[in-house]
Amino acid sequence: MSVASILFPLPLPEPFDYEVPEGLSAPPGSYVTAPLGKLERTGVVWAVGEAGEGRKLKAISSVLPARPMPDGMRAFIDFAAKYTVNPPGNVLAMALRARGALHPSPTETVYRLAGAPPARMTPAREAVLAAIEPHEALSGAELAERAGVSAGVIKGLVEAGSLQALKRAVDAPYPPPDPDGKGFDLTAEQAAAAEALTGAISADGFSPFLLDGVTGSGKTEVYFEAIAAALHRAPEAQVLVLLPEIALTQAILERFEKRFGAAPVPWHSGLADKERRRAWREVNEGRARIVVGARSALFLPFQNLKLIIVDEEHDGSYKQEDGVTYHARDLAVMRAKLAGAEVVLASATPALESTVNAEQGRFGHLKLAARPGAARLPDVELIDLRAEPPEKGHWLSPRLTEAMAETFLAGEQSLLFLNRRGYAPLILCKACGEKLKSPGTDSWLTEHRYTGRLMCHLTGWSMPKPTHCPKCGAEGSLTGIGPGVERVAEEARLLLPDARIAIFSSDTVQTGADTRALIDRMADGEVDVLIGTQIVAKGHNFPGLTLVGVVDADSGMKGGDLRAGERTFQLLSQVAGRAGRAEKPGRALIQTYDPDNPAMIALSLGDRDGFLAIERDVRAELGMPPFGRMAAIILSAPSPEMVQEAGLAIARAAPHGEGIEVYGPAEPPIAILRGRHRRRFLVKAPRQVDLSAYMADWVRRLKLPAAVRMNVDIDPYSFL
Ligand code: ADP
């Protein structure tokens, strides 16, 4: 008897064995249904073997008509589960998030013109025949609506032989990309990088690269060459391009379409069920050739993956913080390795992890130092706010306001960057000193003037701004402290009353279309001053932008996070890099109270490598990632007593490990979230330790009350 071990997309520790009935073929990777408890469930055959004597097993019920999951993908799921300390079923669940995709596309009836006009012509029949073009095939509803007739008329025309009814898949295949589309004539530097990438692709097999090029140096153009080469390798060769916040990056999708003659297949959490099912099935069948997606696209069932690009590889949104916590850049490298594919990490400000990998020879290091044509990198100047403070109650220092006025007079554009939404990040009662918090959560409320509400950015909770202090009852005593983008816009309006000023934050642009419209207005010179949060940092190209002002360079430095300096440097260089992309030179003015900080000095000198060298030495000295390993445990419970007790129980259960240090339970900065009390552990280990295995061993020893939730985070990026 043949036995299949089936992995279900459920939090179970391992696959379960089932009998494969005579006449059914279920090789490894097959999608099957089988009884589990009282239900029929869908799972994947993880392995196949022979049963020993006398073993009584339940049988597989059916094999689904989808192409089996390739070996490399199953190995990746096993790896990701072990690495992130999750049951493999939880990772499989992420790979199966497309309802209906395991069955062939549903079909619909469509109609097209056929043969001669009917012997008996009526005005309604005439309207139908006029409403459809010879090359078209339309559904009955569409055609009836266009012609303004009832469905009966269409039926009559089919019977008369003037229309032909056909079956068509509802989820149509995507138009295929054309690898021979024409790109730019590459510069010598770009051509050398492209050649390294295409050379490795034609050698087949795993090869990781760091594509390290200043903003605007043409990294996209270079990886387009790699994509073209990968598509040429085989009729089914597939490419995955990961982008941070893909819903906001319409412009790059258009560049893909221009280059490859067809839009890439999108994958992100905002897709409707139908698009999700279509994309998943087409990827699985090997027909979707270029997928552009968010981090979760790593879990799509590519059949013949040749290349993964991780664009803006340093971006924080690649870290998934809920459920299975993982870093998409790290998993992308592993995904490529297990699929025997090339992987390219692209950035102007690579993560220290990636530069160290390149320095130590684990990644090929391709550098682009110049911008093509006349475009130059902006000059960066620091403004020491201690020496040059803004006027009282203002946030822009005189040097910045003068530069804004000059820029406006010259008919050029400015961008003010402040990573704080709303009007004021803190509401204080002047009478009693109360600072308003979100209910059941350790997070200040932010004042939003446009909506007149106070909002918690952590939980999304909001309320109208009260007229009285909720604590002491004083009337009109609530004051907003500090600036958000709305407040800076108010100041800019006072300064430049004739300027066209716009705010770019997730509050002012909520859909991809809004974002597009605002970016187009800015690119077309219809905005003089754009004031934005971090969403302005993302790769937009504004030819008339010559001045970038960073309102508060220090805001990301607080909180003792090991990557705070690195992140600030990355974000501010990306923002500064928006200036002077076209022929006009740009400048960036950075307001800071801490001009001696290595990140600030490096920004002003344009010395990224110097900054990375300092960061690297500090982290090496402290044994921090990437020179040592870190993991966290985050737990929460409905009461302070319960979380305290659970914390102590977890601490007692910590296994001994050579060189491993465990800190905690500690109260995190956000000690209460949505009414749940929280604690954290931080674990540090030498690089050679298998920290995932250590954490798994620890978790196995625990027995916690059901009300306690616990999450293991390997290589944490958030310490809140
Ligand atoms: P990056 O991804 O490094 O920020 P892009 O690929 O977006 O850079 O290129 C920046 C701009 O320069 C784009 O508008 C691109 O079309 C243009 N560009 C890139 N390479 C060339 C080239 N070889 N010749 C002309 N224009 C180029």
Task: Provide structural commentary.
The chain is an alpha/beta fold. It has six domains: about 100 residues, 3-Layer(aba) Sandwich (GIY-YIG endonuclease); about 60 residues; about 180 residues, P-loop containing nucleotide triphosphate hydrolases (Rossmann fold); about 190 residues, P-loop containing nucleotide triphosphate hydrolases (Rossmann fold), CATH 3.40.50; about 60 residues, no CATH class; about 90 residues, Ribosomal protein S10 (Alpha-Beta Plaits, 2-Layer Sandwich), CATH 3.30.70.600. About 30% of the residues lie in helices and about 25% in strands. The protein is built from 19 helices and 33 strands. Strand 25, helix 14 and strand 26 form a beta-alpha-beta unit. The two termini are about 55 Å apart. About 45% of the residues are buried. The model has no long low-confidence stretch (mean pLDDT about 90). It binds adenosine-5'-diphosphate.
Described by strand count, sense and barrel closure, the largest sheet is: 7 strands, parallel
How many structural domains can be distinguished in the coordinates? Answer: 6
CATH architecture term of the largest domain: 3-Layer(aba) Sandwich
- Computed CA radius of gyration, to the nearest angstrom: 29 Å
Write the CATH homologous superfamily of the largest domain: P-loop containing nucleotide triphosphate hydrolases
User: What amount of the residues lies in strands?
Assistant: 15-25%
What's the CATH class label of the largest domain? Alpha Beta
Helicity level, as a percent range? Answer: 25-40%
Average pLDDT metric: 91
The low-confidence parts are: none
| SS class | alpha/beta
The general outline is: globular
Kindly report the spatial arrangement of strands forming the biggest sheet: 11-12-10-13-16-9-17
CATH topology category name of the largest domain: Rossmann fold
Distance between the termini: 53 Å
